[in-house]
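Annotated sample (chain length 722).
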Amino acid sequence: MHRRHLLIGGGSLIGLSACASTGMSMGSGASAPTLAADAAIARAVLPAQTPRAELLQPWTGPYGGTPPWDKVTAPKLRAALLEGIDLQRAEIEAIANNPEPATFANTMVAFQMAGEPLDRASSIYGVMTSNIGSDDYNDVDTELSPLLSAASDEINFNPALFRRVKAVADGADAAGLSPDQKRIAVRSRDAFIRSGAALDAAGKAELGRINTALANAFTTFGQKVVNDEKTWTVVPTEAGVAGLPASNKAAAAAAARSRNLQGWVIVNTRSSVDPYLSFADDRGMREVVWRKFVNRGDNGDANDTNAGIAEIVRLRDQRAKLLGYRNHAELRMQDTMAKTPAAAFDLMNRVWAPAKARVAEEVADMRAIAGHDIEPWDYLYFAEKVRKAKYDLDQNELKPYFELNNVRAGSFEMARRLYGFTFEKLAPGTVPVFEPNVSVYQVRDAGRPIGLYYTDDYARSGKRSGAWMTTYRSHSTYDGDKNTLGSNNNNFIKAEGDEPILISLDDAETLFHEFGHALHAYSSTVTYPSLGGTPRDFVEYPSQVHEHWVLSRPILNGYMKHVETGEPMPQALVDKIEAASTFNQGYATVSYLSSALVDMDLHTQAAPPTDIDAFERASLARYGMPKEIVMRHRLPQFNHLFTSDAYSAGYYSYLWSETMDADTWAYFEESGDVFNPDIAGRFKSIMLAPGNTTDRGEAYRQFRGRDPDVRALLKVRGFPTS
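Output written by the structure step:
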């Protein structure tokens, strides 16, 4: 999907917590008349084609046109994707076989334009498979994912197209290209090479076989995990839900009624399981719920993913070696800030040892209360007991302050104060939506309309788990000013009737996190969309830093008000939260970092493992994984790694980004004003707006005056900084 973005290594625009396109203004040297002239030349190269399929048509209506969700069906989507591939093929052939000498306008700009109808259908495809996930769309996914992969390979393996792209890149200086034009050409040339353009015919055929097999394996993996997440655990007696907050207990009762079951139901997704593990008093039932959750994809049944993972890892290893790299991680890290697996390991190992030491302290505190050894299904439960004992802080005391609509309103206020963005909710029916509970907002930047923001908040059967940001249309100006259309997607449990939806502090931070991805998108001043996506280990930085504003006093005072009293969170409670801010960081860090270490370990092996469960156990043993904790994402359900290549050998990127995030938050705090307008303005213009038009490490040094300091990260997590 979004071929021209993915081709040159930008962040996936349809994916797991993916950030949308960001870029730069015409300050790089391209004037509006020049852009218009280049676009006219590019359009003249492309063949005149009129799409027949309804879902390939240009989007119409207000706000620059919006996706026609009300017209989408699985058969229509299938037809659009198939025709879109054919239309794209004709456009690529026209660019590749142009008899005129290769120029930036007739090659690179034309390449930006090629495949736009398919891009529109692909945006719809990504949403219907991720947010809806019904059987008919899964069937389309199964059929079309290998065909889309093959269509991408056709482009990457086209020798005439590669020669033209290489000619523009090699002649960039002589042609007087602007910095961003040169960057597009050079990065495109290099990405073609990494995608197999320099291979001989036999090599291309083999790489095409590998890519098609991977596309099939990714689709199968994702569908199997979703199938296991459609399952649930029945809690038959009142004793089994003792200790649960009233809102979670009510949601479990509603889940049972919706399935015509007696008792309570804990759905096999994190949004249902984590609250149960944190508060349910019934230890035996906690173990049942925990085992069902951590064994998703690992039950030896039709939904077992282990053989599929082994095949994915084997194919990735073959591809890397075919392209001249020692392993998949080395290939994947060519276009990252870290550059090498060694650099990623260095950062992870710097944090791993103090995190494990903190876990030992946390376990000792919990054992003193529990009176027995701590098992993984005990950790969250007794952590809450320790939190209460040490800090007089009960998570149930916090939830009434985090009503979903108020949290979102608080995120909008953060965006207004930092960047001048405003969000105005549209009346239902103003634009089509893909699900009745989706809300839509018009986004303005200092009063200027810049796009629409969609929210899809609630869990449902078929929807993939987790939270993520999706872009339907990214901003660019090279061919007219295109506004941004994007969505934040969550899996909160919908309350019955008019009951308020109370979420945890962690959930509130997740909402601000995903909203940070959206703010990255809406800050875009990009000229060319192919420089929109940022490196994988940068893309989480803008989202992670925005989590910090959840507990800033102006947001608390205005929006995080008690659902019953209407009073803002008292400072005494905020002080308790801040005192406990590094509490349980051993657990949080180890559960995440173990997943990142195993990911990198898996993808740097000289020979790919065949027994995935055995490899996971051995890898964790080598790192000394505490027995009381399980990986946040075990390999059999690790969607980040095995539903695409996006985060493979890249899960470390959250930590890499968090290093910049912690250092940036320290910059705001040290200024004495966490809404410091000068710092916020520079953050928007230097870090958010320019996308990948400049090296992101250089950009950080321009913003902060130096490289990020890892000690800020260690301090945030409460670990020793020496």
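Annotation: Confidence is low (pLDDT under 50) at residues 1-29.
Annotation: The first strand starts at residue 232 and ends at 235.
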